[in-house]
Amino acid sequence: MSRGDNSRGGKSNERRGKSKSNERGGFSSGNKPFTRGKSQAKKTTNTSKKTTDSDEIRLNKFVANSGVCSSREADLYIQTGSVWVNGKPVTEMGYKVKLTDEVKLDGRSITPHKKEYVLLNKHKGFITSTSPEKTRTVMDLVANASKSRLKPVGRLERNTTGLLLFTNDVDLEKKLTHHKSEVRKIFHVELERNLKFEDLQKIENGIKLEEGFITVDEISYIENAPKSEIGIFEHLNYSVVKLDRVIFAGLTKKALPRGHWRILPEQEVINLKMM
What are phi and psi of 29, to 5 degrees? Predict the structure, then answer.
């Protein structure tokens, strides 16, 4: 992870680390998001047309596309009788449904949606939560980004700014947050005072925190910007004034102002899935 600029004129270090743990092109600008429009399907009056394979979808894919679980988990829900189609439980593997069928999971209606991927440049003062809160959450910032049920990939603290990815692709979300995955994150951090050289060396060698031993791939020293991660620097008795995530899994803040979001194009989604 790397750290950003210090407006106080102190020295800084830049570090990059690994964390173990788009289809629709478009861009939003503040409260006026815009994406590629959808064409309306032509109606047909031919009621005698038989249902074809293209009119149907496997039940496990229907459930997984709703964003509530992965395809593997959908199979388990079906096997245990948790999925109902048109008022009846279905436990048959490979069962196909039409998009107009009523499908419920544990009594809740679900609908299949195309997987979507939204990148937000988060404001300070918003918590990462999908539950209704009295305070402001990151879901308020992407409320107009999609009609699908999106979830944040990982989290940022209330006063941390920068990149946060949202998706209804459960498989990708789990892949990027798994402790064995290697997702590169770069932060810009401003400290209340200059970073001592001996502390810089401690970070290079790795630091043991409550959650485990923390290591970095690379750390360098740059004028006018101490950079770090909150846990590491608080451990060394530094106060973090500002923390901004500028890169996440190869995605950057380029052309994405604070508080704005954009929908990832297909190539960026492919890059994420290949990680």
Answer: -125, 95
Domains of the chain: 12-24+115-273 (3.30.2350.10), 54-110 (3.10.290.10)
What pTM does this model have? 0.61
Residues of the chain whose pLDDT is less than 50?
A: 1-51, 222-230
Q: Do 102 and 109 meet the contact criterion of CB atoms below 8 Å apart? A: yes
Angle formed by the axes of helices 266-273 and 170-177, to 10°?
A: 50
Burial per residue of 138-154, b for 16 or more beta-carbon CB atoms within 10 angstroms, e otherwise: bbebbeebbebebbbbb
Helices (H), the chain: 59-65, 71-79, 138-141, 170-177, 197-205, 230-235, 266-273
Q: Give CA–CA dist 8/15, Å, rounded.
A: 19
Burial class of residue 135 (count of CB atoms within 10 Å of its CB; 0-12, 13-18, 19+): exposed
Give the C-alpha separation, 95 to 270, whole Å. 29
